[in-house]
């Protein structure tokens, strides 16, 4: 089989894997994927309700980016008013355990991180 793309090397600036990491390491991408992993499909308004602090614009941009990368599927139903559902694709599902672990890690260690920030900020002031 002839390889279409060069061998991936995440340390190379022109490697497409860096663009993929840029998408999946984004805060909102992580949270949207995690939210979609909790339930098979969700409507836009449901995602907006579940994800505190995300603006309509940011949710739209994040969903489009994840759809473009093949991680989220968007299904439009021909009804009035329009009904749109989002779900993870098979590739998107492969991220759920990793991102769930990261989200759980942040919930366990947030207080240690906050304490370190306070210590750092206090030591940085003149």
UniProtKB/TrEMBL annotation:
Keywords: DNA-binding, Transcription, Transcription regulation. GO terms for molecular function: DNA binding. Residues 15-114 form the HTH hxlR-type domain. Transmembrane segments: none annotated. PROSITE patterns: HTH_HXLR. It holds the Pfam family HxlR. It comes from the Bacteria. This is Putative transcriptional regulator. Signal peptide: none annotated.
């Amino acid at each position: 089989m002839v390889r279409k793309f060069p061998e991936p090397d995440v340390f190379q600036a022109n490697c497409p894997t860096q663009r993929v990491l840029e998408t999946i390491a984004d805060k909102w991408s992580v949270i949207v994927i995690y939210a979609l992993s909790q339930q098979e499909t969700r409507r836009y308004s449901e995602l907006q309700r579940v994800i505190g602090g995300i603006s309509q614009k940011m949710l739209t941009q994040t969903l489009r980016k994840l759809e473009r990368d093949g991680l989220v599927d968007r299904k439009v139903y021909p009804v009035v008013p329009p009904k749109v559902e989002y779900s993870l694709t098979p590739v998107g599902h492969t991220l759920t355990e990793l991102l769930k672990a990261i989200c759980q890690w942040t919930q366990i260690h947030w207080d240690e991180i906050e304490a370190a920030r306070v210590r750092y900020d206090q030591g940085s002031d003149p």
